[in-house]
Amino acid sequence: MSSRSDSPTGSTQVDHLIIGAGFAGLAAAIKLDEAGERDFVVIEKDSDVGGTWHINTYPGAECDVPSQLYSYSFALNPDWSKVYSPQAEILEYIRKVARESGTLDRFVFDTAVVDARWDEQAQRWVVQVEGPEGTREYATRTIVSAAGGLSEPRMPEVEGIESFQGEIFHSARWNHDVDLTGKRIAVIGTGASAVQLVPELQEVAGHLDVYQRTPNWIIPRNERSFTSLEKTAFRRVPGLQRAARSAVYSTLEGRVPAFAKFPDLLKVVEAQGRKNINAAIKDPELRAKVTPDYRAGCKRILISNKWYPALAADNVDLVTDPIVKITGDAVVTADGVERPIDVLVIATGFYVTEPPIAEHVTGRDGRTLADLWDEQGMAAYKGTTINGFPNLFQLVGPNTALGHSSIIFIIESQVKYVVEAAKAMRREGLGAVEPTQAAQDAWTADIRRRMKPTVWQTGGCASWYLDKFGNNTTLWPGQTFAFRQHLSKFDVDKYDVQAVRPTETKEKASA
Ligand code: NAP
Hints:
Blueprint: E1 5-6, E2 12-19, H1 23-34, E3 40-43, H2 52-55, H3 87-101, E4 107-108, E5 112-119, E6 124-131, E7 134-145, E8 167-170, E9 184-188, H4 192-204, E10 207-211, E11 218-219, H5 228-236, H6 240-253, H7 256-260, H8 267-280, H9 284-290, E12 302-303, H10 307-312, E13 316-319, E14 323-326, E15 330-333, E16 338-340, E17 343-346, E18 361-362, H11 369-376, E19 392-394, H12 407-428, E20 430-435, H13 437-451, H14 455-458, H15 480-486, E21 495-499, H16 502-510
Parallel strand pairs: 2-3, 2-7, 3-4, 5-18, 7-19, 8-17, 9-10, 9-17, 10-13, 11-12
Antiparallel strand pairs: 1-2, 5-6, 6-7, 14-15, 15-16, 20-21
Helix pairs in contact: 1-12, 12-15
């Protein structure tokens, strides 16, 4: 394939353009590079690598998947301080892996993809990006979209929210300049982020109101620090850390049958959750408020030793009456109570089933991915490639996220598929590959069938896993090793392919 050059039209020609420099984008860059596919750029809207771990700096931010597994298989880290690492440590890990990979020279920071259009004639994506030096155009053979499902904050649609005069920020856009000591703070949302940040706020706030729409099942966090002896052993004893990683992997995979086929088994988790509640909360009314009425696992099971003690503290009120309005200085609930505040923290999650990057990508028929998915729900062949969008590879695409294990396992599986596809295209002289509609439909139908008995469809809750049609287009409904097996080779027979056009061949010959 061609080497990077500027065409007469002013666009920079590359083989691959990766969107996003989080765990997924970085893995794609490293593995493409290793495979000799070195002509790529990584376009990142923020100022550094790290993705969600770069932007989520709220107090208490930590990972709820053990770090031995929440890390790249090709870059084990013997120095994790704890079983569940804090955000700063994970970010430093990603930075180190990026530095040592030798790929950072192809990363373009502070730059956002604003438009990507498939040019059928040129067999390239024409991509407009906006950065500090204005707009720039790339013409790329493939796009690897690694923009992340948890990147665009979702603000609640509450009357008057724009009129609030105090400090207001989303958990993923934490304003560290605001001194929270002694302040009256409200937090809207009680999901994974809130569960981590509320206990930190409780310690400094004058008063804290936590607005809960739905309680979560929350079980104890079996946290501990690694001793220096363990770290030395991880470093020195061959295979030890990989064995520890495999043990974590197997334990988490062992939970899949309960989520996917036998949700009643999750009653065990509910018992753990009730015990967790009863250990920290004495007030029967508060206990009732925090106890979910749906099957555990239907929403993400959270882990915390600090959440319930924080809610039980004297300076905290858990408010379950729905919010009807926000005024210049207060939150008003349906029972007419007005609670004055200085700071409003929004912890209401992200646009997951309508990923914002899809609005900027226009496929073969002139439709955006957002329009297509808005009409039909998110779907992709093997969670990765999409009919109508040739040479587009979506990392952490539809039905690839996990409720039970490390997303990095999925990312590495997808990246291998992308690399195999790039190799196949080069080997077989293919200018465009696009999954057939039949292959994609069969894949999606199979996912829907397997999704039916899962706790996410039967557990009796509303969750962001489900789209507006009620389909779970977010999670993978099975074992992760099965997903990896499906993506182990690039199955070109399931694709409509086009040979590289003759003009391209000539261009190559003269390059
Ligand atoms: P989330 O899990 O989607 O939680 C959002 C919370 O806001 C829910 O409690 C939701 O209530 C509530 N909410 C949403 N809209 C609302 C409204 N209009 N009024 C009142 N409440 C509203 O978001 P998140 O906590 O930011 O976490 C998102 C995902 O990020 C997690 O599921 C997880 O995958 C990831 N995460 C991971 C970690 C980690 O440790 N690995 C940490 C943080 C986040 P309902 O339940 O009623 O919808």
